[in-house]
Amino acid sequence: MPLSLSEESYLASSLSLRPPCRPDGRDQHQFRPLDASAGILPATNGSARIRLCDGGECIVGIKAEVVESRKEDVALVEVQCDIAGVQSNSPLHTFLCTTLETALRNTLPASRLSIIHRYTYKLFIDGIILDHVSHPLTLFSMTVYLALLDTRLPKLIPSADVASTTTSTSSSDQPIGLPQFESDWQESVPLCDKAWSPPLVQLAVLAGKNVFVDPTGEEAGVGDGAIVVSWHQGKVVGLRTVNTRDSSKQVFSASRDVTEALTRVVS
């Protein structure tokens, strides 16, 4: 239910206090409780589901496909998302997919998906947001993060570097090795390890000089502005501002104070 003008004014004043006061009693750097599970879709390489305490729910499945890496600069990550009650060509849909794709492509080394010769894996990340009350970016990003941690890739058979049967040749008339994999899924290898973990993209709301992570719909509605922050391996790697209110209001710049506050959240 939309807030009245007096409720909006009271909430905005409460969030701007030093220290601030959130309606649910959370600290400004504290996330809401959630229920998370991984490995829920057996026909995928990785999957996850997250449900928030406000009723928001997201499911993500990841599939890895073997492609030729030299074909027209293949993009190794493709993100798609369906949002219940929202058209697939809506600005929100485009925002979620492009934001996650950009974060993953900027941090995922191509060598991590490379197989042999001219073959590599391409990750297809498909999500569905069954319900959302607050902005779904944080929910979608965390579900993708958990699904990537759950993702496993088939183990390559070392002796299969060059296939015994060649179906095509390269431009230099050299045979192209066709990758072959272990059929036992117990031999599969995880995509993520200590050397690489997925990035996280979160929405933070500004109110006065305060920064709030994981904002509710009401908090985002009365905030002075919002920041999309991407972090990877414990560091802020991307920061840009968006406006959650009317277009006539000034969008906040990513000041040094805001950057330092978000860095403290990560650490």
TrEMBL record:
<dbReference type="InterPro" id="IPR027408">
    <property type="entry name" value="PNPase/RNase_PH_dom_sf"/>
</dbReference>
<dbReference type="InterPro" id="IPR050590">
    <property type="entry name" value="Exosome_comp_Rrp42_subfam"/>
</dbReference>
<dbReference type="InterPro" id="IPR001247">
    <property type="entry name" value="ExoRNase_PH_dom1"/>
</dbReference>
<keyword id="KW-0963">Cytoplasm</keyword>
<protein>
    <recommendedName>
        <fullName>Ribosomal RNA-processing protein 42</fullName>
    </recommendedName>
</protein>
<dbReference type="Pfam" id="PF01138">
    <property type="entry name" value="RNase_PH"/>
</dbReference>
<dbReference type="InterPro" id="IPR020568">
    <property type="entry name" value="Ribosomal_Su5_D2-typ_SF"/>
</dbReference>
<feature type="domain" description="Exoribonuclease phosphorolytic">
    <location>
        <begin position="30"/>
        <end position="154"/>
    </location>
</feature>
<keyword id="KW-0271">Exosome</keyword>
<comment type="similarity">
    <text>Belongs to the RNase PH family.</text>
</comment>
